[in-house]
Amino acid sequence: MTEVETKKPQESLQDRLNQVVELLHKHKLVEDLAHRQEGQHQDIVENLVHRQNLAELQRKLDELHPADIAHILESLPLDDRLTVWQLVKAERDGDILLEVSDAVRETLIADMDDHEILAAAKEMDADELADLAPELPRDVVHELMESLDAQQRERVRSALSYEEDEVGALMDFEMVTIRDDVSLEVVLRYLRRLKELPGHTDKLFVVDYDGILKGVLPIKRLLVNDPDKEVADVMASDPVTFQPDQDGYEAAQAFERYDLISAPVVDKNGKLIGRLTIDEMVDLIREESESEVLNMAGLREEEDIFASVWKSVRNRWAWLATNLVTAFIASRVIGLFEGSIEKLVALAALMPIVAGIGGNSGNQTITMIVRAMALDQVQTSNATRLLRKELGVALVNGLVWGGVIGVMAFYLYGNWELGVVMTAAMTLNLLLSAFAGVMIPMTLQRLGRDPAMGSSVMITAMTDSGGFFIFLGLATLFLM
Amino acid sequence: MTEVETKKPQESLQDRLNQVVELLHKHKLVEDLAHRQEGQHQDIVENLVHRQNLAELQRKLDELHPADIAHILESLPLDDRLTVWQLVKAERDGDILLEVSDAVRETLIADMDDHEILAAAKEMDADELADLAPELPRDVVHELMESLDAQQRERVRSALSYEEDEVGALMDFEMVTIRDDVSLEVVLRYLRRLKELPGHTDKLFVVDYDGILKGVLPIKRLLVNDPDKEVADVMASDPVTFQPDQDGYEAAQAFERYDLISAPVVDKNGKLIGRLTIDEMVDLIREESESEVLNMAGLREEEDIFASVWKSVRNRWAWLATNLVTAFIASRVIGLFEGSIEKLVALAALMPIVAGIGGNSGNQTITMIVRAMALDQVQTSNATRLLRKELGVALVNGLVWGGVIGVMAFYLYGNWELGVVMTAAMTLNLLLSAFAGVMIPMTLQRLGRDPAMGSSVMITAMTDSGGFFIFLGLATLFLM
């Protein structure tokens, strides 16, 4: 982990991106010219300009932090992205690969040969290798593993044995361990001998001779206590610990709740096997919120915004197909009442209002419930109460807005019975949308599925078919 | 900030919540009984049981970290919430108030008298007071300010002078400052004299006699370097700094990008005036993603899931009203074509398919664009390219799914011209939804608005009215 010493980089990140884009465009312009012109003399001149531009671009990129380059790569279309990648990949490719999003990483790795990948991986820690491994060609991974020493290989294997979002896959192995029977003075001297401490070291891990975690010594305490004191007297002996098979998102919530910076991971016997750090947790928190947004909208996964049309189509395919089926069902519901619509064509114009407002209101409910579930605020014990509240909101909205729309229907079509049916249908559909908005995510969770998954598509399906059925059914009963 | 030493609290948080709920229910059951029974003897017995339950609950709560109590309060309906609040508020009300969400905090403060609020606020730091102040009664704030010393008052005032999400409102004042002309040994002795270091102290701030920031001394370097060295030789002299009027979310992104734990805030002259810490930034990252979700669904703000029906109605009112207007417009679009529907009632059954799938696909596009914008990946320079890609995806989806639906329409109604119109309308509406999905958030951003704000409602409005117009228009042109 490199120490950052650039001044106010966040201010000018956008500027830097723009500078890179500008240099890229200059470069491309010259390339285009070179293609079009034939004279040899001109070729040489343009080649010079071309090289100057690339050199300038290279200089610019060399100044940037790997995280900034990652951001620039993510913000560039594929061809520009690969031009930049060619310029930076020789030296800092490893750091950059670890910073970019999965979707973009795939495009970068596809541009590297085995030799380049191996060189990039050589400088990585075991946990970083494990992060990268699933996306590398199989034989490259094999060769990589061969090149590691036994402890490193064991660590990579262990990290790979856990699910992507389990603590075991998120932890690193850069723990500084000490014994509890030494003085703080000895600890201070020990640290000095290390020359460098791992990033995010806010505490040292106190272990016994079998590697069992006995406590943690926060650096804060090491600094303010008398150096003659023993570690055992100063350490926190009952720290927050995590198990490797625990859900990473739970760990992230604990980090957030208890303001942790690093925390030990122990196995079933209490043996220290790794540590979690806040930077991994922040990434997880962000990813979790993102996948909530994406899943609700029916996107299968994070999408490289410059992905090919074909890739994007595949990413959105599943939920669109589902939506097609539900829309077809809604259409058949209307088909049931074609006779009524023929007699009173106003029904065709009014029915989308009932369905649309139900869908909108249902989306509000479901968004709120999915969020509360992500924060663990919803239990079976309070489900009924939540449902009652949402039904109350729906009833108020239905009577008020349904009333408004009913009056408008009356004015438009001069038929007061149509107005009453409209109000009644709006109210009933809003009640249905509230019911579905609470029950869909709860049912998904009980089935062990992600409650956000396509919930927006599902609620819209319910309120569409339901709305048409309620409105056209009531109209057929009372107006025909 | 209290040091957490509870063992694996994250494992049992849900259990603890359940225990509290159970105790609360016991307590309420007894209360109910006491209300119903009249005999005096029984009253006394039940009063005893009642008190025992409360005592047990109190014991349970006393063991918990303020953040855990905050979580429990957020997960309880209002009456239970206030019962628990009564039990905890005497001692740790300040810590807990700072941990709960804004919506829940409001309900808790409403339950406190001025005296209690003042007592709770007494132990807070200036930045915490500033967080709380906007939600307190005006005269309480006045009294609070009177009770502060000049420096504290000045700090609260300064924090209050910034927007809620500016760095100046997010920073705290717990900086440990040192001079650059002393040895590390002197620094170590100075820290020991402090007895305690502020939370999240991963670096010390090096300032000159005028308070101008000259660099930072990471604790890591303090620990591994020779104590005889001078601060000036070891410090990082060009650290990442922030300005108080900078956007907090930008700062949070910088924290994430550069793996920061704390960072100095300086004024225009380079004078150190505060510091940002990762815990505030994590909160901000979470809030930002949440407000994105909420805004897209048309919820005005974060909602206490147990808010009263009336409060919830108000929170959702604005976008529902907008939706009512847009639905009405869509209805009038259909009204234009009532003649065609009378002649061919199949149009009424098929038109929601065109509108619905357009809405769904538009929501996928807009979700992706809003996310990319939040990550600063979208510039005007790549807008055209994005638009072209989304139009490409829409074209593929329109021809494929529109084709499927066209064939189905043909089979259902035995009218091949209807099938062709259906396919054409689907394709055109998907192109419209892609166009709107890219342009709506971009336009909102150019107007200086939040691109997520109600974007889902807006895109649905476009694809509904647009879809009806395209489909019914084509049908009227070619089928009548």
UniProtKB/TrEMBL annotation, chains A, B:
<dbReference type="Pfam" id="PF01769">
    <property type="entry name" value="MgtE"/>
</dbReference>
<dbReference type="InterPro" id="IPR000644">
    <property type="entry name" value="CBS_dom"/>
</dbReference>
<feature type="transmembrane region" description="Helical">
    <location>
        <begin position="391"/>
        <end position="413"/>
    </location>
</feature>
<keyword id="KW-0472">Membrane</keyword>
<dbReference type="InterPro" id="IPR046342">
    <property type="entry name" value="CBS_dom_sf"/>
</dbReference>
<dbReference type="InterPro" id="IPR036739">
    <property type="entry name" value="SLC41_membr_dom_sf"/>
</dbReference>
<dbReference type="GO" id="GO:0015095">
    <property type="term" value="F:magnesium ion transmembrane transporter activity"/>
</dbReference>
<keyword id="KW-1003">Cell membrane</keyword>
<feature type="domain" description="CBS">
    <location>
        <begin position="235"/>
        <end position="291"/>
    </location>
</feature>
<keyword id="KW-0129">CBS domain</keyword>
<protein>
    <recommendedName>
        <fullName>Magnesium transporter MgtE</fullName>
    </recommendedName>
</protein>
<feature type="transmembrane region" description="Helical">
    <location>
        <begin position="456"/>
        <end position="479"/>
    </location>
</feature>
<dbReference type="Pfam" id="PF00571">
    <property type="entry name" value="CBS"/>
</dbReference>
<keyword id="KW-0812">Transmembrane</keyword>
<dbReference type="InterPro" id="IPR038076">
    <property type="entry name" value="MgtE_N_sf"/>
</dbReference>
<keyword id="KW-0460">Magnesium</keyword>
<keyword id="KW-0479">Metal-binding</keyword>
<comment type="function">
    <text>Acts as a magnesium transporter.</text>
</comment>
<dbReference type="InterPro" id="IPR006668">
    <property type="entry name" value="Mg_transptr_MgtE_intracell_dom"/>
</dbReference>
<dbReference type="InterPro" id="IPR006667">
    <property type="entry name" value="SLC41_membr_dom"/>
</dbReference>
<dbReference type="GO" id="GO:0005886">
    <property type="term" value="C:plasma membrane"/>
</dbReference>
<dbReference type="GO" id="GO:0046872">
    <property type="term" value="F:metal ion binding"/>
</dbReference>
<dbReference type="InterPro" id="IPR006669">
    <property type="entry name" value="MgtE_transporter"/>
</dbReference>
<dbReference type="Pfam" id="PF03448">
    <property type="entry name" value="MgtE_N"/>
</dbReference>
<feature type="transmembrane region" description="Helical">
    <location>
        <begin position="419"/>
        <end position="444"/>
    </location>
</feature>
<comment type="subunit">
    <text>Homodimer.</text>
</comment>
<comment type="similarity">
    <text>Belongs to the SLC41A transporter family.</text>
</comment>
<keyword id="KW-1133">Transmembrane helix</keyword>
<keyword id="KW-0813">Transport</keyword>
